[in-house]
Design goal:
With 425 residues, the chain is an alpha/beta fold. 45% of the residues lie in helices and 16% in strands. It contains 17 helices and 14 strands. Strands 1-11-10-9-12-13 form a six-stranded parallel β-sheet, sandwiched between helices. A five-stranded parallel β-sheet has the order 6-5-4-7-8, sandwiched between helices.
């Protein structure tokens, strides 16, 4: 049963504690990366046989396989994917930015340009569940940014095929290059390239501990988006919410992963008890009951505080991936939420609508990193380049200042480069 804690009656170390899955995968992942760097496609085929039970000839999905997948997926789901993709495009197109240019009277020009990375690699998980939503959320911002090529890697089934829903989502998003490879090996392939897999400039997408560790190890060779931990939901509510709805929203994230986190913070003990009872009732109705129950036991909790102001302070300290603000006038409190990946406002905005349909990205910072990092966006696929132009006359006006500054840092070569043109005069 989910724990109920009274804020102020327990040490904060216990209130904010979270169980963590301790798996030492560093050495295993390092060996996999080295193997892929040395053996390329042959290593990817070996790992597909070992981990996925798939004997692969071609690593890349063919257009015929994509066409077959579109025929296999229900037309109703194709329409839902198209609606979701339209919402995601509309939201992310607003994120595009223009550069700027500042021109001074003396001829000095400074500015900044925005250019996309040339090639983006998107990891899409497989295993216990397939996530066509991840395909849309990761690929659409990359394409809007203007990446010349977008490459998806995702693990195959034992039949050597990719889940049709993933291929359908890729087609709707506009991605046609899809590689049958999962795990740390696919991250290595994207980072270093193989005979089939092109080397990319940035890797994004969630994954298990092996994928997260691989992203850590290849960072610097390529850029990455974030190290995503297990999913999290935190519900902030006064005593007026329906406990059935709150319990359902918490379980929507608990069913993701045994180490996922579902937390309610409220000023109402009555709501806390109601949600506690509802979680027990609804757990039995879930197909993924075993996973959700383990999540609730590992990291589920209900924190009761004396007032809503304290409730919001607790939420900011936790800095969750998803935060539901279940009050009647949520916009009045929105500015008080300083740390959260995505905020869901009101009593009729379940987190699931953000996972699939509303448009804002569902790739969000976890494990408290919302205090300093951001949701996936078009910016993740954009580089900033600065530029500077000085006329000879403009340089003459500041050369002595630049040289003086450089000498204060002990860099006489810098100083000389600033004044040498003046000496020639």
């Amino acid at each position: 049963m989910i724990k109920i804690m009274k804020y102020g009656e327990l040490p904060n170390s216990e209130i904010f504690a979270r169980a963590e899955q301790k798996i030492d995968v560093e050495a295993i992942v390092a060996d996999i990366i080295a193997d892929v760097r040395e053996n390329g496609d042959e290593a990817l085929r070996r790992y597909a046989a070992k981990f996925d039970g798939a004997e692969l000839e071609a690593l890349e999905v063919s257009q015929a396989e994509i066409d077959e997948a579109l025929d296999l997926v229900e037309p109703e789901f194709i329409e839902v994917l198209k609606k979701a993709a339209a919402n995601i495009r509309r939201f992310h197109e607003k994120q595009l930015r223009e550069g700027f240019r500042i021109e001074e009277k003396n001829g000095v020009v400074v500015g900044q340009r925005f250019t996309p990375v040339d090639r983006a690699g998107l990891y899409v998980p497989g295993g216990t569940a397939a996530y066509p939503s991840t395909v849309l959320m990761d690929s659409i911002p990359a394409l809007i940014a203007g990446c010349k090529e977008v490459v998806i890697t995702t693990p195959p089934g034992k039949d050597g095929k990719i889940n049709p829903a993933i291929l359908a989502a890729a087609s709707i998003a506009g991605v046609t290059r899809i590689i049958k490879s999962g795990g740390a090996q696919s991250v290595a392939a994207l980072a270093y390239g193989t005979e089939t897999v092109p080397k990319v400039d940035k890797i994004v997408g969630p994954g298990n501990a092996f994928v997260a560790e691989a992203k850590k190890q290849v960072f610097g060779v390529v850029s990455i988006d974030m190290i995503a931990g297990p999913s999290e939901i935190l519900v902030v509510s006064d005593g007026e919410s329906n406990p059935r709805y709150v319990a359902a929203d918490m379980l929507s994230q608990a069913e993701h992963d045994k180490m996922a986190s579902a937390v309610l913070v409220t000023d109402s003990m009555k709501l806390a008890l109601g949600v506690q009872a509802e979680i027990e009732k609804q757990l039995c109705e879930l197909e993924r009951e075993e996973i959700a129950r383990a999540s609730i036991e590992n990291n589920g909790k209900i924190i009761v505080a004396e007032n809503l102001e304290t409730v919001i302070d607790i939420a900011n300290e936790i800095a969750p991936e998803h935060l539901e603000l279940c009050v009647d006038n949520p916009f009045e409190y929105l500015d008080s939420i300083r740390h959260a990946g995505s905020v869901f406002l009101g009593r009729n905005c379940p987190e699931a609508i953000g996972d699939y349909f509303a448009g804002p990205n569902h790739a969000l910072p976890t494990s408290g990193t919302a205090k300093f990092s951001n949701p996936l966006s078009v910016d993740d696929f954009i580089k900033k380049t600065q530029y500077i132009y000085y006329t000879k006359e403009a340089l003459a006006e500041v050369a002595d200042d630049v040289a003086y500054f450089a000498r204060k840092e002990g860099l006489t070569g810098h100083a000389r480069s600033a004044v040498i043109r003046m000496e020639e005069e």
